[in-house]
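seq:
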Amino acid sequence: MNALTRKCLLPALLAMGTMLTLPALAEDSVNVTNLSYRTGPFAATGTPVMNGQRDYMLMINARDGGVNGVKIDYQECETGYNTEKGVECYEKTKGQSIVTQPWSTGITLQVLPKSNIDKVPILAPGYGFSPMADGKTFQWAFNPPTSYWDGASMILQDISKGDLASLKGKKIVLLHLDAPYGKEPIPLIQAYADKYGFTFQAIPVGVKEMQNQSAQWLQIRREKPDYVLMWGWGAMNTGALTEAVKTKFPMDHFVGIWWSGSDADLKAVGEAGKGYRSISWSYPESNSKVMQDIKKYVVDAGQSMLPKDEFDYVFYQRGVVISMFTVEAMKAAQEHFNTKVVTAEQLRWGLENLKLDDAHLAEIGMTGMVPPFSTSCADHSGHAGGWMLQWDGTKFVKSSDLLKPETEMYAELSKTEAAKYAEANKPWPINEDCKM
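struct:
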């Protein structure tokens, strides 16, 4: 089957809920399944990330013959970003895949209790329940390289130019998807508001309102906030940007989380979106060794599903970084356990012992694409930090040095929320050998 045929068949297969699978491998291999969403209301933002994840795995197989000789049997189980379908995909694949990637905070929360029983690590890079960073409580869940609370902290630091006290008396609105993902930053931003004396208001956007947010932006016009922060996804992002332009809201006072910083979303408003910013824990470096290898072994070889003009996109290259986390965890587990084909339990150890410093990122050809970080028994996130990216009218450019989250601000909140979750889902295993 050639690349064109695959592209033609893909939408039909996904509509039927068919699992997207690479060809069967005769050699030593491990199954890595992604709970993807190339269909549904969030497909426009989900698809480029999935393309990046897939292409990195294809490149590792083509260039290196797999991970130390072990081929990656990469698969996708289509969820349409639907929680019920996501749980079905998890149940279908948990005995095969060495990792589960839920790709929705709602799905993540549903499979989180199951991971302790099934012993399958959850990899939720930059999403999911923020307290999952507490490895003592959430032994099987990982949200590297940084969490939503980290993102909120960095955004507030940036808009205050490093002086949070200067926010006193100001008004900040959070425009958010009315879903677990969109509600994630609310308790932390409220804690900041209480401490630093600014007014905070959360304005939800329902899934059915994503493309018509006139009511929300009428409220924003009435409130006259100093800043609007956005926790949006899919069609919600384009809807919000379009309304912001219509209402002449100052774009340099409109700031999104990393899932609200898609090139495709901003291209919908083009020059009118100039000044909009998005915090990001990844940065596209198309001339990096890894991206040039993907171009050579996958894109130019006709094996990618990527539209030609999206190679430089933030989300596509973020997908590449995400798959790198799995591959590097596999390498760490192979070395530690002196084995080739790692199990789900061994991969859990690898995800808990990621060491991606500057030297290692240079070695794998990813300098500048993700901040250096490491994970540990206690820290399943790494709190790597991120850069503020700003839309210049045609593309995103870096507009800040590396920002670091103020983790001490919410250390107690994280501990409290983790304990609350464990209590509500007891009996819940706590790793008492893990020292915080």
